[in-house]
Specification:
single chain, about 375 residues, alpha+beta, five-stranded antiparallel beta sheet, four-stranded antiparallel beta sheet, 6 helices, about 20% helix, globular
Length: about 375
């Protein structure tokens, strides 16, 4: 897409985005821009961007800002002079000027290039007001746009790379900021595209050619379609798009929620009772009840694989393999569930049949199953990559 067409599409997208989200009453604070232009873009391109931003400011400034969108001014929120003026998210353009320190902050107000102060957005380590957790020690480094080489554009996200100094040369040896549960801190494209407060960030991503305008439109449509409380895409969601991607599981979790991403689709996948066993017990009333017991506690890294087991020959069947056991101990439930295989590195995740036999957990995506639609995307992505 040519630069001018990209900005034109992005501008139309932002106005359409504002209209659609207002209809759904998802009003939050917005980032649109004014100020200095990117030093990395041609003068003609900058003039076009400036005109688009001037037009956007006139439109958005006529819109009332909900009180809930006004940035907090308490000690736990923003302090005078704490606004981060974002210059670039392209890691190849980072300079010492882009190095920031988030240590101990509950939130940080961010203003994209050319954005007015009252249209900025905030980043949080936890889930904003519901989880006002401060950024951990040594949270100093660079915000940047992360997209793996073989990943669908929809999997793109803002990440924070912690480094030992403000020198961009230390970026490669740095580490992406982690969440308490072991996931990577990020702001997904779905979150950015859906929320009105990130509209300035949307246009900035297009102006840096990090995201195409049509991908923003696709991400917004997917995200809005999943706006139920149960399915909402949040900053701690885990995204997968290919076989062999490892993800962390708690052996005592009843449910593991993932998102499988394709070229223009995203499906929620809920894995239930991976390391538990259903047993019948007599309750206090003497009536038999079905309960789930978890014989093991700990954490492990697992991954989806295309099955090569003889019983799955000539089918598109997915299995789960335990790649690494981080810790495992027998729990108090172990005596109630004899015979459950202990999770070991290299072994498959197992499930018990009605006849009390243990077989590998598996899903044939070409047969009716609650996980088939999401797991089919892994095969589609593999085919798109040429096998």
């Amino acid at each position: 897409m040519a630069p001018t067409n990209g900005i034109r599409s992005a501008s139309k997208l932002m106005f359409r985005h504002w209209r659609d989200v207002r209809k759904r009453q998802h009003l939050v604070n917005v980032s649109v821009c004014q100020g200095r232009l990117s030093p990395h873009l041609p003068a003609t391109y900058n003039n076009i961007v400036q005109k688009r931003w001037n037009s956007a400011v006139k439109v958005f400034d006529k819109r009332p800002i909900p009180k809930s969108d006004i940035p907090p001014t308490t000690a736990a929120g923003l302090r005078k002079g704490s606004i981060l003026r974002l210059r670039t998210l392209n890691q190849t353009r980072l300079t010492a000027e882009d190095h920031i320190d988030l240590t101990g902050r509950i939130s940080k107000s961010v203003r994209p290039p050319e954005a007015s102060d009252h249209r900025r957005f905030s980043i949080h380590y936890g889930r904003a007001r519901r989880d006002p957790t401060p950024f951990p020690p040594d949270s100093h480094g660079f915000l940047y746009w992360h997209l793996e080489a073989d990943a669908p554009p929809l999997s793109g996200q803002v990440r924070f790379r912690t480094t030992t100094s403000s020198d961009p040369a230390t970026f490669a040896n740095g580490r992406d900021l982690q969440l308490p549960h072991g996931g990577t801190w990020h702001i997904s494209l779905f979150h950015i595209a859906r929320r009105v407060k990130c509209s300035g960030l949307c246009v900035h991503l297009v102006s840096e050619r990090l995201v195409m305008a049509d991908m923003l439109d696709t991400a917004r449509s997917i995200s809005i379609s999943q706006m139920t409380r149960k399915k909402r895409l949040t900053t701690d969601n885990l995204f997968l798009w290919k076989f062999g991607q490892r993800f962390l599981v708690d052996l005592r979790s009843f449910t593991v929620v993932l998102w499988i991403i394709g070229g223009s689709v995203a499906e929620r996948l809920c894995l239930e009772y991976l390391f538990s066993v259903e047993v019948r017990e007599s309750g206090s009333t003497g009536i038999a009840e079905r309960v789930h017991r978890m014989p093991y506690a700990g954490r492990a890294l697992i991954q989806f694989e295309r099955s090569t087991l003889p019983e799955h020959k000539n089918t598109r069947t997915v299995i789960l393999r335990i790649v690494k056991v981080i810790e495992v101990t027998k729990s108090d439930d172990s005596e109630d569930v004899p015979g459950m295989p202990e999770p070991k590195e290299g072994s498959l995740v197992m499930r018990r049949t009605g006849g009390r036999h243990w077989i590998p957990w598996s899903v044939d995506v070409d047969r009716p199953h609650s996980s088939s639609k999401a797991l089919t995307i892994l095969f589609d992505n593999e085919a798109a990559q040429g096998g």
